[in-house]
Amino acid sequence: MQLSRDGVPVLYRSSDLSALTNSEGKVSSLTAAELAKVDAGWKWGDDSHPWRGKQATIPTLQSVLQQWPHTFFYIDIKSPDADPTVMGQRLLEVLKTTDSLDRVRVYSTEDRYIAALPPAIPRFVTRSETRTRLANISLSHQCQPASQRDGEQWYGLELKRKVEVVEKFTLGEGISPATLTWDKEAMDCFRSQDKAHIIFFGINSAEDYRTAIELGADGVMVDSPAQAKSWQ
Prior knowledge:
Elements: E1 2-3, E2 9-10, H1 32-35, H2 61-67, E3 73-77, H3 84-97, E4 104-108, H4 111-115, H5 127-140, E5 152-158, E6 160-169, E7 172-181, H6 184-193, E8 195-201, H7 206-215, E9 219-220, H8 225-228
Helix pairs in contact: 5-6
Protein name: Glycerophosphoryl diester phosphodiesterase
InterPro entries: GP_PDE_dom (IPR030395), PLC-like_Pdiesterase_TIM-brl (IPR017946)
Organism: Klebsiella pneumoniae subsp. ozaenae
C-alpha cells in the first residue's frame, strides 16, 4: 500500500511506476485518478505481457475492500516517502469507511509505519523485534520475551533470512554472514510467551511449503499463488 499525491491509499508494490507500468516516477507523484489510468500490466509477466491493455490499473485500497467485503486482507505498507502519521490516518479512514477494521492486519518492513498506526488498526509486531528475537534463538539459543505480552501477537518474517553478524572487539569489529532459520526451537519460544501467530514470507518452493506446514505456521506468503496450488 502506498499513498497517491492526493493522499489516497492505493495498491502497488514497486517503488517506481516504471517497474510494471507504462508510466514512471513515484506513486506519490500522481493522484489516485491519474493512477487509475495507468496500465499496471504493461511490463508484467513474460515477453507476451498477458495483462497489457486489459484495463489492469492501480486500484485504491477502498475499492478493493468494497469489491471483496468478506475477504481478510494482510496489508503491507511500502510507501517510501509518505509521512507515517498521515499514512496511518488515511488508512484508518478507509478501514472505517469500509467497515474493515476486523478483517485486516497491517505489516511493514519499516518500524516507523507500524509505530505510527492508530491503536484501532490491527498490526504485526515490528520486523526488527521479530528479527531480533529470532536471532537470539538461532545464534545463542536464548528465548527473549516479547515486548508486549497481552493479547494476540502476529509475527511475519522469511522462513530463512540472511543477515550479517557484527562482533565488537578491542581493536575493531568483525562481520560475518549468518542465516536466521525458523525451526521447532524458534516456534516453541515465540508461542510459549504469548498467543502468537506466525506468517512466513518468501515461500516459493514445495520444500519450504512443507517445512512451513511441519512447523505449524499460521500462513505463508508466496510470489505465485498459481504455482503454489501444485504444492498441496
